[in-house]
Write a structure and sequence with these properties.
Layout (H helix, E strand, L loop, with lengths): L5 E7 L5 E13 L2 E7 L5 E3 L2 E3 L4 E7 L4 E7 L6 E9 L3 E2 L4 E13 L5 E4 L1 H8 L4 H19 L19
Parallel strand pairs: 1-10
Antiparallel strand pairs: 1-2, 2-3, 3-6, 4-5, 6-7, 7-8, 8-10, 9-10, 10-11
């Protein structure tokens, strides 16, 4: 796959309606993992003290076998790590040429560089999860706990090739 090609990332709600779409460049595809790079182009958006700002550089990891995706956010010009934004979601799926989609399950996690974690929209997720099959609820919450544990133990840094829930290659 050519890293110069533009892909489209599509965020869908639980009813599969598109809620957002943005361009990104594929940096890595290995088995069940896609790593994209993009720049935040919208107006400033703040959630629980974490702000996405125009020009912020983001590495975005999507997983075909995990119930979350991760945005690693860097300050635009300086390149300083600002933190991570994690979405609980159905596993990512390819959808046509150079398109990847994820279905958002509303629960988000913000992780600041100093280690503080803030969970966002838990009540919305709990309300939504009542309409999900029990096996889906269990899988999503299991992976949610695993990604939080991975952040607690320093196992996540996309730019350095550290992806939660992905076995490291030998050698």
């Amino acid at each position: 796959m050519d890293a110069s090609e533009v892909w489209w990332i599509r965020k869908l709600d639980i009813l599969y309606r598109e809620r957002a779409r943005w361009p990104a460049r594929l940096r890595l595809h290995h088995r069940h993992v896609w790593l994209f790079e993009t720049a935040f182009a919208g107006p400033e958006q703040c959630v629980a003290g974490f702000c996405f700002r125009p020009g912020d550089r983001m590495l975005e990891a999507y997983f075909a076998h995990r119930w979350f995706n991760i945005f690693e956010v860097y300050r635009g010009e300086s390149g300083v790590l600002r933190g991570w934004y994690v979405n609980l979601s159905f596993p990512a799926r390819l959808e046509g040429p150079r398109q990847l989609r994820f279905v958002d399950l509303l629960l988000d996690l913000i992780v600041f560089p100093h280690g503080e974690m803030v969970e966002v929209d838990r009540e919305e997720f709990l309300s939504l999860s009542q309409s999900l099959p029990p096996a889906v609820q269990r899988a999503a919450l299991r992976d949610w706990q695993q990604v939080k544990d991975a952040f607690r133990t320093g196992q996540v840094h996309l730019a350095r090739g550290r992806f939660p829930g992905v076995a490291r290659e030998p050698g």
